[in-house]
Amino acid sequence: MTNDTNIELSRRKILAGLGTIGLASAGAGAGTMALFEDSEDAQAQVQSGTLDLRVNGANGTVTILDESGIAPGDSGSNSFYVRNAGNVGGILSATVGDVVDHENGRNDAEKEVDSTNGQGELSQHLKMSLSVEGDTIGPATLANTQGRTFGPWMLGGGVRTKITVNWHLPESAGNEVQSDRVTADLGLTLTQGNIVEATSGSGFPNLASGDFNAAFRYGDDGGSAEQEILIQNSAPSAGDVHYDWDEDEHTFTMEYDQSNDELTISIDGTEVTSQSGLPTADDGVGITVASRNADDGGVTVSDLTIDGDMVVPGTVSASGGEGKNHIEATPGISGGLTLEGTFQFTFGASPEAESPAIYFDFN
Q1: I need a surface site. Which of 14, 186, 222, 286 has the fewest CB within 10 A?
Q2: Structurally, how many domains does the chain consist of?
Q3: Are residues 187 and 214 in the same domain?
Q4: Inter-residue contact 298 to 318 (CB < 8 Å)
Q5: Above pLDDT 70, what percent of the chain?
Q6: Which residue has the higher pLDDT, 115 or 122?
């Protein structure tokens, strides 16, 4: 479900979205900032429940911020509430879009430093940040947030959360922003689902001593030049197969059946290998990516889900010989686990055994 929020920024209007924020000043240079709310009904039927996203209690457009007379050195903030009025849990995200600068006229002081008549510069100077229940993102210039999506945040049925928009026009902003105006949209999206919280770090995760593991890697067991998928507790394993990797993005699925202690691996929807009789895993999974040397290339794993729930953080990468990085999630395994995501290799001039590689440790 999506709600659009209008953001207007300038010396007269500095930020808009979910409301109107105005910034304008006499001579010193200012703008107007506007921030608008949820502009469309965010209600959808989900099985026997509903998702219903509301901003400040309403489904219509709501103005949450409207200020004027801002100048370099000024800052401010405003808070509003987003509520899931339905009874099904959802994942909330916020996307900034349609950032448009307006010159809004030029006085003599601005003409001396700004020859871009018809195009404002406020978005290039205005610093913005977003705080959601203590989680702060930014600051960054409004121009640099164009097209970016922030979050996700879990929003249960009947639960509301406070969002605070912070803005600051640095003293370094000169006369080129006088009377400028900028507009933007802030879209709020609520999608049915849950979040699996994960931890990240360098090296192998705590699950590296897991009961069994799997790997996508560039060679080892079949020779250093072999490209392999492995399922093993100790090599070699019945689940080992040769696989020709490329540099395209691919999807993967790992289905662990606890009743048979069986792991099945599919790439782009096609099963490639399976092995049963593995040691029992009860806790979760760790994903490690490795690039040992600068000439090996790199690898990225992203869009991770466990049993359909989003893993956060859900992306991990390594390249240029930076070593190993990991994500670890321990949601508990009861009956089984389905891990899904995307991955992409890049190969350097001389990749070596086990690099680049992805390791999956189950425990």
Answers
A1: 222
A2: 2
A3: no
A4: yes
A5: 70
A6: 122
